[in-house]
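Next comes this protein.

***
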Amino acid sequence: MSFTSLGLSDAIVRAVTEAGYTAPTPIQQQAIPAVLNGGDLLAGAQTGTGKTAGFTLPVLHRLSTDARGLALTNSTSPRPIRALILTPTRELAAQVEESVRVYGKYTKLNSTVIFGGVGINPQIKQLKHGVDILVATPGRLLDHMDQGTVKLEQIEILILDEADRMLDMGFIRDIRKVLAALPPKRQNLLFSATFSDEIKALADGLLDKPATIEVARRNSTVEIIAQKIHPVDRDKKHPMLSYLIKAHNWTQVLVFTRTKHGANKLVDQLGADGIGAMAIHGNKSQSARTRALSEFKDGTLQVLVATDIAARGIDIDQLPHVVNYDLPNVPEDYVHRIGRTGRAGATGEAVSLVCVDEHDMLKDIEKLIKQTLPREVIAGFEPDPTARAQPIQLRSGGPGHRNGPNRNGNKPRSNGNGQRSAGGGNASGNGGGNQAGRNASGNAPRGNGGNGPRSNAAGPRGNGNAPRAAAQHRSGGRGR
């Protein structure tokens, strides 16, 4: 099957072909005709399936081939926003908008992306001129709505991308505020890695007789990924990682840590061992973050150390190695983490360094993925059988405390009554937790594991440029 046979215009097929893709992925084969048909869509797909192209391609087709699209003389003439794409994080927003530009370059449509962590004035200027397709994170979009700098009255298509993660991160209130500002007559597309009860409830209230597509079973891990556990004492993790990288000559390794401080510390330790590494997390500047992603993608950086939320949307062809330096305290994040490798039929390896403190986390992960992961003790790094587990400092609210500041080290962003604090972030609920039922005290986010793919190698995924997303929270606002 070709992209042309799906009914896409010659201009879009030309751009897709130039990007090096000829065959649509399974979700693209199903989603593209459904979107072109004009009805609502509920689509479930795991990481690496090509879901972003599954909605960007038909949306570009619809907007560029109707009367309004054909009437455009060029891509710079003023116009109203006709399609709105909401994503949970800056990195994913930047990559989705990049896909829109890549695949729409031979149309007269234009697009822009807005997210927190960067100045709002350039975004205001762009929005004032007008764009056809707006990609946004919920918090920054609400900032613009509050200031009257974005007009959503003529939205024809709404896309909620990674809807499950937006709910997990406490964005349900933001989403509902956005929905209230949209025209009632529109096409709605909801994409989610899982169909939880919360997602089903959101879909029931949003979608009208939707087509339903699901191309991966719930919480499945990529079958081709070789998963392995290396038992090790907590103070031997860094030496073991250095040993594995050198002994196996790993040249491109994505390493996950639980905290920003842990990421910075590990980068310093690896550097002292002669291993080039950089960290990416919420406290990094935009320039540092962009540089790290760019160098890691082009292979000049050997190790990228990331927290869950910072790694959201990292999309790299044939990434061979993912290492869980720390296990995630949310089991689903393990699935998202290891989904960064083993793309498009390529082999991948996911290694987890597990100390006695993390045995309960490991049990939760194995229960979720319904398999027992193989253990391999490395000679010279045998764990002490008499070691006692210690509480894991997930957040600064106390050892193992899940209701304090979030596990990436940020201070609470809500006063517990669903109000936004001066420090930015989003209110997650009414004192007792957000509507996704995950966090208390209104904190967000819990962290996310990077299931933000645009495609695998069998379908479009963009031009491979590093995300332009920012890393720092904007003081006094909803910088997300």
